[in-house]
Amino acid sequence: MLIYDLDLDSIANLLQEWDEPAYRAKQIWQGLYQHLYDSPDQFTNLSKSLRTKLEENLSFMPFKVNTYLDSSDGFTRKTLFQLPDKNLIEAVLMRYGDPADNPQITGSPTGRGAKNRRTLCISTQAGCAMGCVFCATGQMGFKRHLSSGEIVAQVLYYARMLKDANESVTNIVLMGMGEPFHNYDNTMAAIDRLNDPSGFNFGARRFTISTVGLVPQIRRFADEKRQVNLAISLHAADDESRVAMLPVNKRYKIDDVIEACKYYVAQTHRRVTFEWALINEVNDSPEVAKRLAARLKGLLCHVNAIPLNPTTGYSGQATSRERAAKFKESLEQAGIPCTIRMRRGIDIHAGCGQLAGSV
């Protein structure tokens, strides 16, 4: 059993079975999520007999690091993890600011964006069942769901690395391998565990969940009234275009997705972000922007556009800087705020849509 799959109550119940004092549960919880211990022998405040029980009954190692790659500019690290069943997943650390002071990642001494922001891109599945044509994870197909503990462990791995550099995680995006809402219960359990104020205490508003638009789960998410940010991978303004890129659109049409987003905003009063991969002469024209703006009119939202990241299984090309600027201008003229994101980690295939769990 993986210890990161247990919430605080589960740890307390296990200790009760072992006839251990109840207060030990909080000590273990704080050791895992505040001190970031990753082996029983680090829990020096526990008795030797309890450390032995932890060693014999629980796993602290959900994966091994197969390899890692650092981008040439020093701002991005991608890590390939091998799970016990030999499945591979990837997670990414993106640094914004000056990386020169980090012994783990060195490179260019200058950068753009919020200084000292350390964003993690975390996977929720090995592979993905959604089949988005321009996404390397979708191209590899679905392998299996990750447990809540396997999701949590990716965050803690990077948290330890940053702690060694006197830094800390500032943002977590569940935009890595997999569709988080396809693995809804485990994804939310992982967020709850990391959000717990007595443990890792990571603020809900610093999480972002990205979905291709699984309508029932968007509505469920809305009903739970979480403060976690919601991002929708849209990429097209009409159903015919979208279904050619995102097969899920056969089941959940754009109108259905937009209506679910309106429901989300009504329930939570929070803004929705629409993600848009700008593909040259496919979805990057002012005309497409105007059609998109018409669909989004009146909705509390923001469009987060990024030139397409290349993958071996898709022949489309990234838009040009000029076309991206005109797309953004057209949206903003129609009253829809838009940001053109900076691409990161492209040289190590660590950008959005590039994670493939390969060596």
Q: Please, could you describe this protein's structure?
A:
The strands form 2 sheets. A 10-stranded mixed sheet has the order 1-2-3-4-7-8-9-10-11-12. It is built from 11 helices and 12 strands. The chain has 359 residues and is an alpha/beta fold. It folds into 3 domains: 3-57, DNA polymerase, domain 1 (Orthogonal Bundle), CATH 1.10.150.530; 62-189 and 346-359, Alpha-Beta Barrel (TIM Barrel), CATH 3.20.20.70; 212-341, Alpha-Beta Barrel (TIM Barrel), CATH 3.20.20.70. Helix 5 runs parallel beside helix 6 and helix 10 (286-296) packs parallel to helix 11. A hairpin with a 5-residue loop joins strand 2 (76-82) and strand 3. The chain has helices at 8-17, 24-33, 48-57, 136-140, 148-164, 184-195, 215-223, 239-245, 254-268, 286-296, 321-333, and strands at 64-70, 76-82, 88-96, 117-121, 125-127, 142-145, 171-174, 207-211, 229-233, 272-278, 301-307, 338-340.
Element layout with pairings:
Elements: H1 8-17, H2 24-33, H3 48-57, E1 64-70, E2 76-82, E3 88-96, E4 117-121, E5 125-127, H4 136-140, E6 142-145, H5 148-164, E7 171-174, H6 184-195, E8 207-211, H7 215-223, E9 229-233, H8 239-245, H9 254-268, E10 272-278, H10 286-296, E11 301-307, H11 321-333, E12 338-340
Parallel strand pairs: 4-7, 7-8, 8-9, 9-10, 10-11, 11-12
Antiparallel strand pairs: 1-2, 2-3, 3-4, 5-6
Summary tags:
single chain, 359 residues, alpha/beta, DNA polymerase, domain 1, TIM Barrel, 11 helices
